[in-house]
């Protein structure tokens, strides 16, 4: 029979080993410039910067945690690196978009964020503050969620190379705007700050790049 002391020691040793692995993982992430806190020891908890094919165990962000955003240069660079891995015939893992159509949609979503592309408002419960904050910063972007017609208008005529070339200057145009200045309303979420647009647009791009496996 195992003594209580031996059982306690085993649990303590196991906990210590796990804590050490967690600390090593966090240090590796910090050395790589990651600003997303990890809840478990994984290769990289920031979905924008994990290597191709690396496992990822997402953790629910906590209040006060930093989030991926277009305002972070490292996050923009990670998106550009993922863009370079796309091809015109890259297959989608879900949904009806082709890769060129997805890029046209993503580019027009950035134009919506900067006010270049006006989008008609909709009355939705997403404007309520608590729901809005959860959707902007916490809840994963749902698959197959309805989108504004304005963000689909160019998809049928999308040219992959043209859309690919337009993506980097659109990112730079976004961050060229004053972060604390006036920003357009979102058709579903209503009033938005530059901080909110930076996080939402980054998460939207990440969602669609993941749709095509990059």
Q: Beta-strand percentage?
A: under 5%
Order of helices and strands: HHHHHH
Give the class from helix and strand content and strand pairing: mainly alpha
Any idea what the radius of gyration is?
20 Å
Describe the structure.
The protein is 46% helix and 0% strand. It has helices at 4-31, 73-83, 99-114, 129-137, 160-176, 194-211. The longest helix has 28 residues, at 4-31.
Structure summary:
By secondary structure, the protein is an all-alpha fold. 46% of the residues lie in helices and 0% in strands.
Q: How are the SSEs ordered, and which strands pair?
A:
Elements: H1 4-31, H2 73-83, H3 99-114, H4 129-137, H5 160-176, H6 194-211
Question: Main attributes?
Answer:
214 residues; mainly alpha; Four Helix Bundle (Hemerythrin (Met), subunit A); 2 domains
